[in-house]
Amino acid sequence: SAAPSADAPEGVQTDPAKFLAQPLVDTIYTADPSAHVFNGKIYVYPSHDIDAGIPDDDLGSQYAMRDYHVLAMDRIGGKVTVGPVALDMKDVPWVSKSMWAPDAAYKNGTYYLYFPAKDKDGVFRMGVATSKDPMGPFKAEPAPIKGSFSIDPAVFTDDDGQSYMYFGGIWGGQLQNWASGQYDAAAGNTDLKQDDKPALSPKVARMGSDMKRFAEKPRDAVILDEAGKPVLGGDHDKRFFEAAWMYKRDGKYYFLYSTGDTHFVNYAIGSSPYGPFTYKGHVLRPVQGWTTHMSMVDWDGKTWLFFHDTQRSGKNHLRNVKVTQVHFNPDGTIQTIDPFVH
Ligand code: FUB
């Protein structure tokens, strides 16, 4: 395991005391933490970062991950167990590369691992794998979820037992390539370059009762600005980039997401799992490292934000997950978290 940022480039913060929270594990690099409480324990489903020697680019080619490990803990602040390989790319016949941000769900005695990866044509799809154990190993379905595309699945189960998948990511996540409903390579590698038009929306689809398919064509989960208008493509501080997450509190649906190139975690609130969601503000200010990605979960009467930064390595593609408490205002808005101590 690396000492904190032993190999950090110049100008990167290395003093642990300057970070609000500390890495949860130091034996592997982890990112994109999706936290869940199953059977009274906390399980985190992260990406497993590796150094594949690929230089940084706008497509995120440096994020060349190949497998997943699950983290488990009995309590926040307690010992964190790093599970064995939960799913390996070599055991998923349709995958060529890029095992990106996963999520998990539970239904009727089965745990479901959802993961985005590039298929043999280099197009991102969403896979699903199952296990009787939340730590895995998971067995993947032989084909991706029909009608799935882009990245960063987050599966939320509502109080009535109905589950929904939120997903999508622009730039390397390819959401712009699906604007017409069909994959269009000509849409380019970033966004639609239509700054005065509504931004690309994240997607939401109701899951079938078997949790392995979409029960409907994915819909737009529209994010509105404070004036009730769709957030515009040019509004990089507010528009959706990637890292969808859904959290429900007091009957309100909190949609969390990353703004990518402006590095915020934002939230928007709606009254239905389908949205629309009205922008409310930042949950997390920019962390160290290019990407930011989170999940929010209740545990022991408190709410927690799992997130990542690059404290241990100082490198964008070698991240470490962390957790910190979230505080709400009486009106249900979230107090913005600064990842650095001042
Ligand atoms: O980990 C690879 C990608 O980086 C994720 O899918 C994005 O959310 C970003 O964190």
Automatic annotation (TrEMBL):
Highest taxon listed in the record's lineage: Bacteria
The name this protein goes by in its record: Glycoside hydrolase family 43 protein
Species, as recorded: Novosphingobium organovorum
Molecular-function GO term, any one: hydrolase activity
Family: Belongs to the glycosyl hydrolase 43 family.
Sorted UniProt keywords: Carbohydrate metabolism, Glycosidase, Hydrolase, Polysaccharide degradation, Signal, Xylan degradation
A Pfam short name: Glyco_hydro_43
The keyword Signal is annotated on this UniProt entry: yes
